[in-house]
Structures are given as C-alpha cells and as structure tokens.
Amino acid sequence: MAKAWRWFHQLGSPKYLFQKTGQWLPWIWGVTLILLAVGLYYSLWASPLEARQGQGHTVRIMYVHVPAAALSMVGYIAMAIAAIVGLVWKMKMAFAVVRSIAPAGAAMTFLALFTGSVWGKPTWGTWWEWDARMTSELLLLFLYLGYIALHSSFSERSKADKASAILAIVGVINIPIIYFSVKWWNTLHQGYSVTQKGALAPEFQVPLFTMLAGMYLLFAALVIMRLRAEIILRNQKSRWVMEWATADTKKVTHD
Amino acid sequence: MISTLLKRELKVARRNWIGLAIPLLFFIIVVSLFPFAVSPEALMLQKLAPGVIWVAALLSMLLSLEQFYRSDYQDGSLEQLLLMSSPTSVAISKIFAHWLLTGLPLVILSPLLGLLMQINYGFEHINHTWVLMLSLMLGTPTLCLLGAVGMSLTLAANRNGLLVSILIIPLYVPVLIFGASTVTASLESLRYNGELAILGAFLMIAIVFAPFASGRALKISVG
Questions:
Q1: How far apart are CA B191 and CA B180, in angstroms?
Q2: Minimal CA–CA distance to B54: which of B209, B208, B169?
C-alpha cells in the first residue's frame, strides 16, 4: 500500500512523469498499432456481413463507432476523476492530465457522432435523428468544447486549471441526468447490446473487442503525447526542461 | 449572515433597477417575435408556446446573470464579501437575489406571454396559464443555481458573456425538456404531475450541489 502511494506521489513530479511516459510511449504505440491492424483487418475484410437487417457493409462502421462512443464517455469520467484528484490533493499534474484528455475525448465524441450519422443514413434513412443517445452525445461534445473554451480563456494557468476542473466535475454529475432526460424525451437508438449474452454473435465479437482494446490504447497514447507537451509547456522555466531541450538540439546539430 | 448579504444584494439591485428590467423586456420581445416569424395563426402559436416561452425565459435568465456577479467582481466588493463570510453563503445570497429579481418576475409575467401565444385558445374550461406558471416557478430556481456556477467560473476569464452561455446551456437542457413538456402535456390534456415532480427533483439536486460549487468557483476567481 505504502509503495502504491509513493508511486502515486512520484507521478505528481513533472520530471518523473515525463521520463516514465517517455519510456511507456513506444510500447503503447507498438501494441496499439498491432491491435488496430488486426482489428481493422477483421472488421473490414474478415468478418461476416450483417444479414438480418439487410445492412450489408454498413455493419462494419460499428467497429469504429462503438469504441469511439465508449471512449467519449470513459474519457469524460477520467477527466472528472483527474479533476477531483487535482482539486482535493492539489496535484498540478492532475490538471495537466485533465487538459490532455479533453481534446482526445472531444475527437472521440465527434468520431462517434460522425460514424453514427454515416451509419444512420442507409439504415434509418436519416443523417440525424433527435434520439436520446445521439442527443446526449451531442451535448457531451458541447461539454468537452465548453471545457476547452473555459480553460483557454484565462491568463493565469492555475486559475484556468481549477475553474475548468470544477466545470468538468459539474459536467460529470450532469451526464446521467442529461442522458435519462433525453431518453425519457425521445428514443430510437437500439439498447446497449455489447455485454448482453447472446446479443452479439461470436464472429462479430472478435473484431469488436480487438478494436475496443486498440482504440482504448490509441486514446491513451494520444493523451500521453498531449500530456508530455503540457508538461514541457508548464515547466518551461525549470532546469531539467532547459537541459532536455538543449540536449535535443545538440543531438540534432551533431547529426 | 445570509439575510444581511441578501439585503445588500437587493439594495444594490434596487439602485440599478433598469438593468433588471432589460432581461424582462427581452423576454417579452423575443416571444413576440415568433408570431411575425412563423405565423399569427392561433393553433400554430399554441403548439409552439411552451417551447418558445421556456427558451425565452432561459435566455433572459442567462442575460441577467452578469449583473449579479460582474460588477461586484470588478469593483472588488466580491473580494470583501468573501473575506467577510463563507463563499457558500455569498453564493446562496446571490442565487436567491437573482431568482427573486429575475426568476420570480418571469413567473409573474408569463401569463401575459401565454396570452400572446394563445395558450388557452380553444379551451373553454381549462386554464393552462397556471401550469405554465407552476413549471416556471419550479424550473427557474434551477436555472439560477446552475447559472451561478457558470458565472462564478468565468468571472476571472478574459472573454465572457458568450462563454457562460456555452458552458451552461448544455446543463440547462434537462430543465428545458421537462419544463416545456409539462406545459405540452397540459395542452394535450394529459397528466403533468410527473414532469413537475422531476422539475422539483432537479431543483433539489441543484440546491444541494450548486451553492457549494459556485462558492468554490468564486473563491478561485478572486484568489
């Protein structure tokens, strides 16, 4: 337990976090690329077509849509958890994590909406429907964009961090309320079928779960890359950053 | 403590009553645009009435937020208030004053707008005005509470005005849904107590969380 806490505290040090993430990143990217390559091969070529609803190839959109939609929500919850950690334990690196998740989460939300729209046109016959899940996903996109807008409108970074952390927490309390309100209001989207037993045939499961794992890791890799940039940006004046930056240019000039 | 703070808010507001009348005027003018834009036909207006009145109420609540926070922040009195008492009680007094001076007048004005939007057209014995007033009575305090959080967060931000709207409107959606559907249900001669109960539940949740969050945000903005 004590060891776990020490590790947690060490992650609060920008230098340690920067070095550690630098070591992890190549591995994460490697596994991500392998999983995505396998997942895309299965989902785009080697998986069967959906016969019952007569969708044909459109079913393949699901393999990107479901992971993107899952990540859009998981990303927001992760943001809120990091925001709580930042506000309660006053860990500055937690705020950097919140800020790093936001653009990746917004991108996933947009991807989920876009793929859903492309899938909806041939299947439901419409690009957009004011259905519960789609509407709450759209509002989630607004929440992400609101967070980014708020964070970028302060001149002091510490104020920006704290204020937008509160917004992230308020948003996460509201997500279930928004979701159930719009669900009551209007519903067309199919129910949650991935974890229901027998709802999804095994030949669809293999590509879907590979893509889920691949997209989660892709998300992690994108967040970590953004986080490293944030760490450098926030510690521009500290010595190790100067040394790291000059070491890098030296290496370039030597080559 | 809170009553002293509240008295102060009301006194400041009384000396700037024009500033409070503007959002109300906006409420009336926005609603009266719809007959021009859509059609003056009574049945059509009646159908639009719940949504239009609710959206207009929501926007005029957003407009009036500035007045309760911005000037206090700029002239430094917010800092003094926070030194004097706890941030949560400052937030509570501001939220209550905001509702008393914007939310309640909206509720009182709403029958007039119901009239303009032909809300009782074709109904002999049923009066939908009361339902409209009741839904606004339960919904506007929640709008005040959520708006207070957004406003307190953006006080120290460089750009404002529109920023608050972007942050807060997604959070307003549930209130808007149930507020407008209360009136719609009544217009369709359906029971509407369920919707009213949910509006009440939203209010309870917001009362528990929003003053605290708003107080924290005020402290961050000033500190």
A1: 14
A2: B169
Q: How far is CA A189 from the centre of its chain?
A: 22
Q: Please write the tens of the pLDDT for every residue from A198-253.
A: 566 677 778 889 999 999 999 999 999 999 999 999 988 888 888 888 886 666 55
- Contact yes or no for A207/A190 (Cβ under 8 A): no
Residue B175: partners with Cβ closer than 8 Å, 6 or more residues away: B58, B139, B142, B143, B146, B199, B202
- Compute φ and ψ for A245, nearest 5 degrees: -70, -45
Minimal C-alpha gap between B95 and chain A (Å): 17
Tokens of A175: 């997500």
Give the burial class of B166: count Cβ atoms within 10 A of its Cβ; 0-12 exposed, 13-18 middle, 19 or more buried.
Answer: middle
Residues of A with Cβ-Cβ distance to B157 under 8 angstroms: 150, 153-154, 163
Of A142, A154, A155, the CB nearest to B170: A142
Q: Given B149, B167, B213, which is nearest A146 (Cβ)? A: B167
In a mutational test of the B interface, the residue from A159, A161, A178, A183 whose CB has the highest number of chain B CBs within 10 Å is A159
Tokens of A209: 């779960």
Residue with tokens 């199919």: A190
Q: A174 to chain B nearest CA, in Å?
A: 7
Give the predicted TM-score (pTM) of the model: 0.88
Residue B221 to residue A170, Cβ atoms within 8 A: no
pLDDT tens readout for residues A114-129? 999 988 888 778 888 8
Q: Which residue of A has its CA nearest to B199?
A: A181
Instruction: List the pLDDT tens digit at each of the 223 positions of chain B.
Output: 888 889 998 998 888 888 889 999 999 999 999 999 988 898 899 999 999 999 999 999 998 888 888 888 988 899 999 998 899 999 999 999 999 999 999 999 999 999 999 888 888 777 889 999 999 999 999 999 999 999 999 998 887 678 888 899 999 999 999 999 999 989 888 888 888 999 999 999 999 999 999 999 999 998 8
Residue B2 near residue B89, CB atoms below 8 Å: yes
